[in-house]
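Q: For a teaching handout, I want to show students what a protein-ligand complex looks like in token form. Below are the inputs, and the small molecule is pyridoxal-5'-phosphate. Please produce the holo structure.
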Amino acid sequence: MPLEFPIAERMALLDASGIRKVFDLAANLSDPINLSIGQPDFDVPRAVGDEAIAAIRRGFNKYTQTQGDQLLRQAVARQLAKEFGWADDVPLLITCGVSGALMLIFLTVINPGDEVILLDPYFVMYSHLVNLAGGKPVCIDTYPNFRPDAAKIAAAITPRTKMIVLNSPGNPTGVVYSREELADIAAVARKHELLVVSDEIYNAFCYDEPFVSMAGLYEHTLLTRGFSKTYAMTGWRLGWCTGPRNVIEKMTMLQQYSFVCAPSMAQAAGVVALETDVSAHVAEYHRKRDMVCQALGEKFGLVKPGGAFYAFVPAPAGISGSEFVAKAIDKNVLLIPGAVFSKADTHFRISYATSDEKLAKGLEILACLA
Ligand SMILES: Cc1ncc(COP(=O)(O)O)c(C=O)c1O
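A: Here is the structure, written as tokens, with pyridoxal-5'-phosphate included.
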């Protein structure tokens, strides 16, 4: 039997206690109404699955080029040409999901002591990866409406600031940034020569207005998108990243010595995914977003989320987000406490990526807890 061995000090920078507490509390539930899951409830589109199987059958099972298979790279480049008017030799790296891209980005760009601006609440991976890379997360409070405020960002900049991380549509808030907000942030970033990381993994899930990408507004943007949410390929580990050529080249070198390449059959299927229309799924989530707002909007003072498939809801007065989540678990409803994504423990996150029936039932129970 293997025995315990000392762990590297950097691992003390990681902490999963917030989420673990929820899973511990939930462990005894037999058939919970699960509104905690951060992935689509629909399956991979049929044609995409068929292509992955066909790729395996025709022997497309070896390592691909580190930067990604050429067919997928060309397909992504065509999309970028259409969206931004960029040339087809745009720097591009196919990654193991957006998570893979984030890991490579932070390790490639962050020096020890560099400060990275995060807009709190934020996707929890960011702060952990920044810490792991030796950087220092600097959190800017965006409560109560989660709008990004360029003036607040400017005020947080020091000589050590290296980058700003944006995530629109956002996890956990569902907030979608407007063109004006992004342009204001771009002006600040340009003035201070900062890199902007734009995590656009939810770009397909935008309900009230057309999606705007930071990459079209700021020349020092590292843009990353993925296949996990749009095509329900969470287990297939596929994403991509584009940005300044020298950064993408170093990220590619690091991928060569770490992930090696994204899964080959997922890359083959990714080409088909990019040609697949997911608008029916997006319309479904738009409708579910409206269900959430109708049930909880006024009662909880919920800020209407414009995208992704989350709502970040204030806990009722007098109790913390974590206490409310414990109460909900008591009633068989699983949520994530806001403190998992934030320095504040005032909210809880609902994922509405579930069936109408479960969602309606969960919302009814939550409304009674208000
Ligand atoms: C904001 C955000 N970025 C990145 C990821 C990771 O996605 P991937 O499956 O592409 O690694 C997630 C997954 O929940 C996410 O919510």
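A: Two things your students might notice: The domain at 46-273 is CATH 3.40.640.10 (Aspartate Aminotransferase; domain 2). The radius of gyration is 21 Å.
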